[in-house]
Amino acid sequence: MAAIMDEGALRLRMAQVMKAMDDRGLNRGTSGNVSARCGAAMLVTPSGVPAALLTPEQMVLVQADGSTAPGALKPSSEWRMHQGLLERRPDINAVVHCHSRHATILACANRPIPAVHYMVAVSGGTSVPVAPYATFGSPELAQGVVEALDGRYAALMANHGQIVVAPSLDFALAIAEEIEEQAAVYWGTLAIGGPTLLAADEMNTILQRFKSYGQR
């Protein structure tokens, strides 16, 4: 269970996560966005602000009815997607969306990431699916992503990028980084004739092992 952070700590960590995505090559410019559960509301990154310029104070508190405080910055165009995920998934407290290169290449080719490596299981499944394309910021996109992520931590977004949900911001960032690595591995195998995939029963074993892997 992720430790509960107060609003101030969440705002700071969100700004740090956005900068980390840039530093690690997962994002560029003003693309990508991050959110975190904050009581009955959520904090989400503002629209159109480069990660390098983000401050904790700029994070936008969005209430359950979609309202924001007077004078607040405009929330990310994808706020409905973030809100839908947080509402539907009580097991998660954070959402990270980015346009990492190899994940985006596969998303633009509408190619799910198969069981090319056991670390694909960090997605919460035996593969990483692709949510159907819809215009950014639209209710249709939000719905498609919510459905693709049902019971999983990660998915690709057709002709768009990748999306990750997790119990904490740090966990979500780590998964996003691993999904990009697995996308790069799969992309590389396609260039040399295609991968040899792990069997379904082995991937199911890995999924069970991951439930108790590492520090809890």
Describe the structure using short key phrases:
216 residues; alpha+beta; L-fuculose-1-phosphate Aldolase
Structural classification: alpha+beta
CATH class: Alpha Beta
Strand content: 5-15%
Q: Treating each run of at least 4 consecutive H or I residues as one helix, how many helices?
A: 6
Characterize the structure shown.
This protein is α+β, with helices and mostly antiparallel strands. It has one domain (7-210): Class II aldolase/adducin N-terminal domain (L-fuculose-1-phosphate Aldolase, 3-Layer(aba) Sandwich), CATH 3.40.225. Helices cover 36% and strands 14% of the residues. The chain is built from 6 helices and 7 strands; from the N terminus they run αβββαβαβαββαα. A 7-stranded mixed beta sheet has the order 3-2-1-4-7-6-5, with helices on both faces. β5, α4 and β6 form a beta-alpha-beta unit. α1 (7-23) runs parallel beside α5 and α3 packs across α5 (169-190). The longest helix has 22 residues, at 169-190. The radius of gyration is 17 Å and the shape is globular. The protein starts with 6 loop residues before the first helix and ends in a 6-residue tail after the last helix.
Compile the SSE list and pairings.
Blueprint: H1 7-23, E1 33-38, E2 41-44, E3 60-62, H2 79-88, E4 94-98, H3 101-108, E5 130-131, H4 139-148, E6 154-157, E7 161-166, H5 169-190, H6 200-210
Helix pairs in contact: 1-5, 2-4, 3-5
Brief rundown of the structure:
This protein has 216 residues and is an alpha+beta fold. Helix content is 36%, strand content 14%. It has one domain: Class II aldolase/adducin N-terminal domain (L-fuculose-1-phosphate Aldolase, 3-Layer(aba) Sandwich), CATH 3.40.225.
